[in-house]
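Record filed here:
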Amino acid sequence: MPPYQPWPQPPYFAPVPPPAQPPVNGLAIAALVLGILCFLPAVGLVLGLVALAQIKKRGERGKGMAVAGTAMSGLGVVLLVLSLVTGAVSDFADGFRDAARESSENGGTFSLDKGRCFDSLGDSLEGTAYDVDEVPCSGGHDGEVFATFRMTGGTYPGDSRITEVADEKCYALQDSYVMDTWAMPDDVDVYYFTPTRESWGIGDREITCFFGSTDEGGTLKGSLRRDETTLDDDQIAYLKAANVLNAAYASAPEEEYVDDDLPGHKRWAGRVSSALADEARGLRSHDWPATADKQVAALLRDIEAARKHWALAARATDADTFYVHYVAGDKLLGHEKAIAVRKALGLETTLSDEAPGGSGTETGAEV
C-alpha cells in the first residue's frame, strides 16, 4: 500500500480575540449585487467607482466587491448606450480602466500574500468569493495562505483546466511552507482561490493556495508555518534530509501488491535506497548540537542498515525476495529514532492516531 504522511494533533494555541474590523462599504455591496444581476449596469458601474473612492478615503472594507461589481457592470454596459453618453464617458472609461488595472496589479479582485490569514465572508471556503477579512494568524481564522502563483495566457482556459493547475501546484507547494509535516493537524486540507471567467477578462491570473479546516464550521488556530522563517538551522537541516526520504516513499507504485507490478516496486525500492543515501549525507554534513549528536548518530546507523535492504529489494528477482528485504528495511526505519532526534531538536514528536505502523523515518509503508 502506498505510504502517506502522518498528521499529528495540532498544538494548543490560546485564542486571541481579533481586533475590531472596519465596516463594509454599502455602495460596494450594491455594486456587486447589480453586477451579478446584470441589472442597471451603468448604475452598478457608477456605484462601484464611488465605492472605491470611499473605501480608499475611509479605510472601509469591500474593495474586492467594488472592483468585481465595477468589472461586471462595465462589461454589461451596451456599446450603443455608451456611444450616446457625452462628457462622462471618458471619466467612466478611465475609472473602469483604473479599477481593472489595480485589480490586475493586485492579482485579482482581492489579494493575500503568503503567510497571511483571513476569515471568509461566506459560510464555507468553497464557492465564489469576492472579498475576505484579513485577520491575525495568532487567533482563530478560516484560512492561511501558503503560496501564490500566476497563470499565463490570453484566453480563459476554462474552469477544469484552472482547477487542475491549482490542485497540482498547490499540493506540491505546501511542503515548502510546512516543512515539518508532523506539525500539520489532521483536520486541515489544501484549498485555493482561482480566477473566474469574469475576473480573467480584467487581468486576473493569480491562484492563491491556502490551508483551511475540513470540519464544517471549523477554524484554524495559530500559524501553521514551519519553514526558514520560523525554524532554526538545526531543525531545517534535519527536515530537509528527512523530507528527501518522504518524497521517495510517496512515489510508490499504484499497484498495491508486489506480484502485480514487481518491476515497478523494484524501481520504487531503488528510489528509496537512493533517498536513504541522500538523507545520510545530509545528516552527516551538518554540525549537530551536543544535545542531538547521539540521537542523530543512532538514526544514521539504522538508515545505513535499511539502505542495504532497500538496495537488495531493488535487485530482487521475485516477489518473495522483495518482501524479505522490504520488511527488514522498513522495520529499521521505525518512528522511535526519528522521535528521539525530533525531541532533541525541539520539533513535533506526536503522531496522529491514524499513522501507520512502520516508517521510513518520517512516513510509513504497510505490507
Observations:
- The chain has twelve helices and seven strands.
